[in-house]
Amino acid sequence: MKKSDFYFDLPDHLIARYPQPDRSSSRLLTLDGESGAIGHRGFRDLPSLLAPGDLLVFNDTRVIPARLLGQKVSGGKIEVLVERILDQHRVLAHVRSNRSPKNGAQLLLEGAVHAEVVGRVEALFEIAFDPAKTVLEWLDAYGHMPLPPYIDRPDEQSDRERYQTVYSKKPGAVAAPTAGLHFDDSVMQALADKGIETAYVTLHVGAGTFQPVRTENILEHKMHSEYAEVSEAVVDAVATCKARGGRVIAVGTTSVRSLESAAHFNGGTLAPYTAETDIFIYPGYRFHVVDAMVTNFHLPESTLIMLISAFAGKSEVMQAYQAAIQEEYRFFSYGDAMFITRKP
Asked: How does it assemble (predicted)?
Protein backbone atom coordinates (compact mmCIF):
# COMPACT_ATOMS: atom_id res chain seq x y z
CA MET A 1 0.00 0.00 0.00
CA LYS A 2 1.38 3.37 -1.04
CA LYS A 3 1.52 6.67 0.82
CA SER A 4 0.35 8.46 -2.33
CA ASP A 5 -2.92 6.50 -2.19
CA PHE A 6 -3.89 8.82 0.66
CA TYR A 7 -3.08 12.11 -1.03
CA PHE A 8 -5.64 14.85 -1.63
CA ASP A 9 -5.22 18.46 -2.70
CA LEU A 10 -6.41 20.94 -0.07
CA PRO A 11 -6.90 24.64 -0.85
CA ASP A 12 -4.95 26.71 1.67
CA HIS A 13 -7.96 28.80 2.70
CA LEU A 14 -9.66 25.69 4.14
CA ILE A 15 -6.95 25.28 6.82
CA ALA A 16 -8.48 26.67 10.03
CA ARG A 17 -5.98 29.04 11.66
CA TYR A 18 -8.39 29.98 14.45
CA PRO A 19 -11.25 28.15 16.15
CA GLN A 20 -14.89 29.09 15.69
CA PRO A 21 -16.17 31.61 18.27
CA ASP A 22 -18.23 28.86 19.91
CA ARG A 23 -16.80 25.35 20.29
CA SER A 24 -19.94 23.51 19.23
CA SER A 25 -20.75 25.78 16.27
CA SER A 26 -18.50 23.61 14.05
CA ARG A 27 -19.96 21.63 11.18
CA LEU A 28 -20.23 17.84 11.28
CA LEU A 29 -19.85 15.63 8.21
CA THR A 30 -21.30 12.14 8.71
CA LEU A 31 -19.96 9.06 6.94
CA ASP A 32 -21.76 5.72 7.14
CA GLY A 33 -19.08 3.07 6.88
CA GLU A 34 -21.51 0.42 5.67
CA SER A 35 -23.19 2.32 2.83
CA GLY A 36 -20.68 5.13 2.20
CA ALA A 37 -23.53 7.65 2.59
CA ILE A 38 -22.41 11.20 3.42
CA GLY A 39 -24.44 13.75 5.35
CA HIS A 40 -23.97 17.33 6.48
CA ARG A 41 -24.92 18.45 9.99
CA GLY A 42 -23.89 20.82 12.75
CA PHE A 43 -21.86 19.52 15.68
CA ARG A 44 -24.76 20.20 18.05
CA ASP A 45 -26.64 17.47 16.15
CA LEU A 46 -24.25 14.82 17.51
CA PRO A 47 -26.59 13.65 20.33
CA SER A 48 -29.28 12.91 17.72
CA LEU A 49 -26.88 10.48 16.00
CA LEU A 50 -26.37 8.49 19.21
CA ALA A 51 -28.68 6.19 21.15
CA PRO A 52 -29.26 5.82 24.91
CA GLY A 53 -26.75 3.28 26.17
CA ASP A 54 -24.02 4.21 23.70
CA LEU A 55 -20.63 4.91 25.29
CA LEU A 56 -18.47 7.92 24.35
CA VAL A 57 -14.78 7.48 25.20
CA PHE A 58 -12.80 10.70 25.58
CA ASN A 59 -9.07 11.37 25.98
CA ASP A 60 -8.58 13.49 29.12
CA THR A 61 -4.97 14.51 28.45
CA ARG A 62 -4.15 18.18 28.96
CA VAL A 63 -1.89 20.16 26.62
CA ILE A 64 1.10 21.78 28.32
CA PRO A 65 2.59 25.11 27.13
CA ALA A 66 5.53 23.12 25.85
CA ARG A 67 7.43 25.56 23.62
CA LEU A 68 10.18 27.81 25.03
CA LEU A 69 12.38 30.25 23.10
CA GLY A 70 15.76 31.53 24.25
CA GLN A 71 19.45 31.16 23.78
CA LYS A 72 22.45 29.16 24.81
CA VAL A 73 24.42 31.08 27.41
CA SER A 74 27.46 30.57 25.15
CA GLY A 75 25.56 32.26 22.33
CA GLY A 76 23.06 31.28 19.64
CA LYS A 77 19.27 31.17 19.56
CA ILE A 78 17.47 28.01 20.62
CA GLU A 79 13.93 26.65 20.61
CA VAL A 80 12.87 23.91 23.01
CA LEU A 81 9.71 21.83 22.50
CA VAL A 82 9.08 19.54 25.45
CA GLU A 83 8.07 16.07 24.26
CA ARG A 84 7.82 14.32 27.62
CA ILE A 85 8.12 15.23 31.29
CA LEU A 86 10.41 12.72 33.02
CA ASP A 87 10.01 13.98 36.58
CA GLN A 88 9.43 17.29 38.37
CA HIS A 89 12.61 18.86 36.99
CA ARG A 90 13.66 16.93 33.84
CA VAL A 91 12.20 16.62 30.36
CA LEU A 92 12.91 15.07 26.99
CA ALA A 93 12.66 17.74 24.32
CA HIS A 94 13.12 18.55 20.67
CA VAL A 95 15.74 21.28 20.28
CA ARG A 96 16.18 23.58 17.29
CA SER A 97 19.35 25.62 16.99
CA ASN A 98 22.13 26.25 14.50
CA ARG A 99 24.30 23.74 16.35
CA SER A 100 23.08 20.93 18.55
CA PRO A 101 23.83 21.72 22.19
CA LYS A 102 26.33 19.51 23.99
CA ASN A 103 25.99 17.96 27.41
CA GLY A 104 26.46 20.64 30.01
CA ALA A 105 25.24 23.44 27.75
CA GLN A 106 23.53 26.16 29.79
CA LEU A 107 20.28 27.59 28.43
CA LEU A 108 18.35 30.76 29.24
CA LEU A 109 14.76 30.39 28.07
CA GLU A 110 12.24 33.22 27.78
CA GLY A 111 14.74 35.45 29.58
CA ALA A 112 13.91 33.81 32.91
CA VAL A 113 14.18 30.02 32.90
CA HIS A 114 17.62 28.51 33.52
CA ALA A 115 18.15 24.98 32.23
CA GLU A 116 20.96 22.59 31.35
CA VAL A 117 21.34 19.91 28.69
CA VAL A 118 22.24 16.74 30.59
CA GLY A 119 21.88 13.96 28.02
CA ARG A 120 20.46 12.72 24.75
CA VAL A 121 18.05 9.94 23.82
CA GLU A 122 18.11 9.40 20.06
CA ALA A 123 16.77 12.65 18.53
CA LEU A 124 15.61 14.07 21.87
CA PHE A 125 17.61 16.05 24.43
CA GLU A 126 17.33 15.53 28.17
CA ILE A 127 17.09 18.92 29.84
CA ALA A 128 17.15 19.70 33.57
CA PHE A 129 15.29 22.81 34.70
CA ASP A 130 16.14 25.12 37.58
CA PRO A 131 14.81 23.22 40.63
CA ALA A 132 13.40 26.42 42.15
CA LYS A 133 10.12 25.43 40.46
CA THR A 134 8.72 22.29 38.87
CA VAL A 135 8.82 21.89 35.09
CA LEU A 136 5.05 22.39 34.91
CA GLU A 137 5.31 25.61 36.92
CA TRP A 138 8.03 26.97 34.63
CA LEU A 139 6.05 26.01 31.52
CA ASP A 140 2.81 27.44 32.86
CA ALA A 141 4.55 30.75 33.64
CA TYR A 142 6.63 31.14 30.47
CA GLY A 143 5.74 28.50 27.88
CA HIS A 144 3.94 28.93 24.57
CA MET A 145 1.11 26.65 23.46
CA PRO A 146 2.59 24.23 20.88
CA LEU A 147 0.30 24.95 17.95
CA PRO A 148 0.69 22.59 14.98
CA PRO A 149 3.01 23.61 12.13
CA TYR A 150 0.10 24.26 9.76
CA ILE A 151 -1.33 26.94 12.09
CA ASP A 152 1.25 29.39 10.80
CA ARG A 153 0.89 32.16 13.37
CA PRO A 154 2.27 32.86 16.84
CA ASP A 155 0.28 31.43 19.71
CA GLU A 156 -2.06 33.83 21.51
CA GLN A 157 -3.42 33.94 25.05
CA SER A 158 -6.78 32.61 23.82
CA ASP A 159 -5.06 29.42 22.61
CA ARG A 160 -4.42 28.47 26.24
CA GLU A 161 -8.15 27.88 26.55
CA ARG A 162 -9.23 26.95 23.03
CA TYR A 163 -6.38 24.48 22.21
CA GLN A 164 -7.62 22.48 25.18
CA THR A 165 -10.70 20.32 25.73
CA VAL A 166 -13.19 21.37 28.41
CA TYR A 167 -12.68 17.99 30.15
CA SER A 168 -8.86 17.92 30.04
CA LYS A 169 -7.39 16.72 33.31
CA LYS A 170 -3.93 15.12 33.12
CA PRO A 171 -1.07 17.39 31.87
CA GLY A 172 1.35 15.82 29.42
CA ALA A 173 0.30 16.34 25.79
CA VAL A 174 2.11 18.60 23.34
CA ALA A 175 -0.77 18.45 20.86
CA ALA A 176 -4.48 18.54 21.57
CA PRO A 177 -6.81 15.58 21.00
CA THR A 178 -8.62 17.86 18.60
CA ALA A 179 -11.89 15.97 18.06
CA GLY A 180 -12.67 16.88 21.66
CA LEU A 181 -12.35 20.64 21.04
CA HIS A 182 -15.95 20.77 19.72
CA PHE A 183 -17.52 19.59 22.97
CA ASP A 184 -18.78 22.32 25.31
CA ASP A 185 -20.85 22.13 28.47
CA SER A 186 -24.14 22.32 26.56
CA VAL A 187 -23.26 19.37 24.29
CA MET A 188 -22.01 17.35 27.26
CA GLN A 189 -25.29 18.04 29.09
CA ALA A 190 -27.37 17.09 26.03
CA LEU A 191 -25.47 13.78 25.81
CA ALA A 192 -26.07 13.07 29.50
CA ASP A 193 -29.77 13.97 29.20
CA LYS A 194 -30.13 11.42 26.39
CA GLY A 195 -28.55 8.63 28.44
CA ILE A 196 -25.21 8.53 26.62
CA GLU A 197 -22.52 7.07 28.90
CA THR A 198 -18.99 8.50 29.06
CA ALA A 199 -15.55 7.12 29.93
CA TYR A 200 -12.04 8.57 29.84
CA VAL A 201 -8.73 7.19 28.62
CA THR A 202 -5.44 9.09 28.62
CA LEU A 203 -3.01 9.33 25.72
CA HIS A 204 -0.40 12.07 25.95
CA VAL A 205 -0.18 13.20 22.33
CA GLY A 206 3.42 13.77 21.24
CA ALA A 207 4.92 15.96 18.54
CA GLY A 208 5.37 12.76 16.54
CA THR A 209 1.72 12.99 15.58
CA PHE A 210 2.79 15.66 13.05
CA GLN A 211 5.71 13.67 11.64
CA PRO A 212 5.13 12.88 7.97
CA VAL A 213 5.24 9.38 6.55
CA ARG A 214 8.56 9.44 4.69
CA THR A 215 8.38 6.06 2.93
CA GLU A 216 6.22 5.45 -0.13
CA ASN A 217 5.56 1.91 1.09
CA ILE A 218 3.58 2.61 4.28
CA LEU A 219 4.60 -0.75 5.76
CA GLU A 220 8.14 0.63 6.08
CA HIS A 221 6.97 3.56 8.21
CA LYS A 222 8.24 3.63 11.80
CA MET A 223 5.40 4.78 14.03
CA HIS A 224 6.10 7.19 16.88
CA SER A 225 5.43 6.04 20.44
CA GLU A 226 3.09 7.67 22.97
CA TYR A 227 2.06 6.90 26.54
CA ALA A 228 -1.48 5.57 26.99
CA GLU A 229 -3.66 4.58 29.95
CA VAL A 230 -6.83 2.49 29.76
CA SER A 231 -8.18 1.79 33.24
CA GLU A 232 -10.15 -1.14 34.61
CA ALA A 233 -13.14 1.24 34.85
CA VAL A 234 -12.96 1.87 31.10
CA VAL A 235 -12.68 -1.86 30.36
CA ASP A 236 -15.77 -2.48 32.51
CA ALA A 237 -17.70 0.37 30.89
CA VAL A 238 -16.95 -1.01 27.41
CA ALA A 239 -17.99 -4.54 28.41
CA THR A 240 -21.23 -3.24 29.94
CA CYS A 241 -21.98 -1.16 26.85
CA LYS A 242 -21.41 -4.07 24.48
CA ALA A 243 -23.54 -6.37 26.67
CA ARG A 244 -26.53 -4.02 26.45
CA GLY A 245 -26.17 -3.67 22.69
CA GLY A 246 -24.69 -0.19 22.75
CA ARG A 247 -21.94 1.21 20.55
CA VAL A 248 -18.47 2.27 21.70
CA ILE A 249 -17.77 5.67 20.14
CA ALA A 250 -14.22 6.99 20.38
CA VAL A 251 -13.76 10.74 20.47
CA GLY A 252 -10.66 11.24 18.36
CA THR A 253 -8.00 9.02 16.87
CA THR A 254 -6.08 9.12 20.17
CA SER A 255 -8.99 7.43 21.94
CA VAL A 256 -9.16 4.91 19.09
CA ARG A 257 -5.44 4.16 19.42
CA SER A 258 -5.71 3.83 23.21
CA LEU A 259 -8.64 1.39 23.13
CA GLU A 260 -7.33 -0.62 20.22
CA SER A 261 -3.84 -0.83 21.77
CA ALA A 262 -5.34 -2.18 24.99
CA ALA A 263 -7.02 -4.96 22.99
CA HIS A 264 -4.44 -5.51 20.23
CA PHE A 265 -1.59 -6.15 22.67
CA ASN A 266 -3.79 -8.55 24.65
CA GLY A 267 -4.70 -10.93 21.84
CA GLY A 268 -7.78 -8.96 20.77
CA THR A 269 -9.49 -8.78 24.18
CA LEU A 270 -9.72 -5.39 25.89
CA ALA A 271 -7.75 -5.26 29.15
CA PRO A 272 -6.30 -2.51 31.35
CA TYR A 273 -3.28 -0.90 29.69
CA THR A 274 -0.63 1.48 31.02
CA ALA A 275 2.31 1.60 28.64
CA GLU A 276 3.82 3.07 25.51
CA THR A 277 1.98 2.36 22.29
CA ASP A 278 3.29 2.57 18.73
CA ILE A 279 0.25 0.93 17.16
CA PHE A 280 -0.04 1.78 13.44
CA ILE A 281 -3.57 1.30 12.12
CA TYR A 282 -3.94 1.20 8.35
CA PRO A 283 -6.32 -0.53 5.91
CA GLY A 284 -6.50 -4.23 6.66
CA TYR A 285 -6.48 -3.76 10.45
CA ARG A 286 -9.32 -5.56 12.27
CA PHE A 287 -10.89 -3.37 14.94
CA HIS A 288 -11.58 -5.01 18.30
CA VAL A 289 -13.39 -2.31 20.30
CA VAL A 290 -14.50 0.83 18.48
CA ASP A 291 -17.83 0.96 16.60
CA ALA A 292 -17.93 4.65 15.63
CA MET A 293 -15.78 7.71 16.06
CA VAL A 294 -15.78 11.49 16.15
CA THR A 295 -12.71 12.92 14.43
CA ASN A 296 -11.41 16.04 12.72
CA PHE A 297 -10.14 16.21 9.13
CA HIS A 298 -6.54 15.05 8.82
CA LEU A 299 -3.51 15.87 6.69
CA PRO A 300 -2.96 14.19 3.33
CA GLU A 301 -0.77 11.07 3.49
CA SER A 302 -0.79 11.10 7.30
CA THR A 303 -1.05 8.07 9.58
CA LEU A 304 -4.36 9.48 10.84
CA ILE A 305 -6.08 9.48 7.45
CA MET A 306 -4.77 5.92 7.09
CA LEU A 307 -6.41 5.05 10.43
CA ILE A 308 -9.85 6.38 9.44
CA SER A 309 -9.48 4.70 6.04
CA ALA A 310 -8.96 1.41 7.88
CA PHE A 311 -12.12 2.16 9.85
CA ALA A 312 -14.56 3.25 7.14
CA GLY A 313 -12.90 2.20 3.87
CA LYS A 314 -10.28 4.09 1.88
CA SER A 315 -12.47 4.96 -1.10
CA GLU A 316 -15.32 6.02 1.18
CA VAL A 317 -13.04 8.28 3.24
CA MET A 318 -11.41 9.87 0.20
CA GLN A 319 -14.86 10.54 -1.30
CA ALA A 320 -15.97 12.11 1.99
CA TYR A 321 -12.89 14.34 2.00
CA GLN A 322 -13.65 15.49 -1.54
CA ALA A 323 -17.21 16.30 -0.44
CA ALA A 324 -15.83 18.26 2.52
CA ILE A 325 -13.54 20.26 0.24
CA GLN A 326 -16.41 20.95 -2.17
CA GLU A 327 -18.61 22.11 0.73
CA GLU A 328 -15.73 24.18 2.15
CA TYR A 329 -15.44 22.51 5.52
CA ARG A 330 -12.65 23.81 7.75
CA PHE A 331 -9.70 21.39 8.09
CA PHE A 332 -7.26 20.20 10.76
CA SER A 333 -6.96 21.00 14.48
CA TYR A 334 -9.21 24.06 14.69
CA GLY A 335 -11.46 22.83 11.89
CA ASP A 336 -14.75 20.96 11.60
CA ALA A 337 -15.55 17.38 12.61
CA MET A 338 -16.71 14.04 11.21
CA PHE A 339 -18.88 11.31 12.71
CA ILE A 340 -17.92 7.97 11.18
CA THR A 341 -19.37 4.51 11.67
CA ARG A 342 -17.25 1.42 11.07
CA LYS A 343 -17.36 -0.46 7.80
CA PRO A 344 -18.36 -4.09 8.56
From this structure: Monomer.
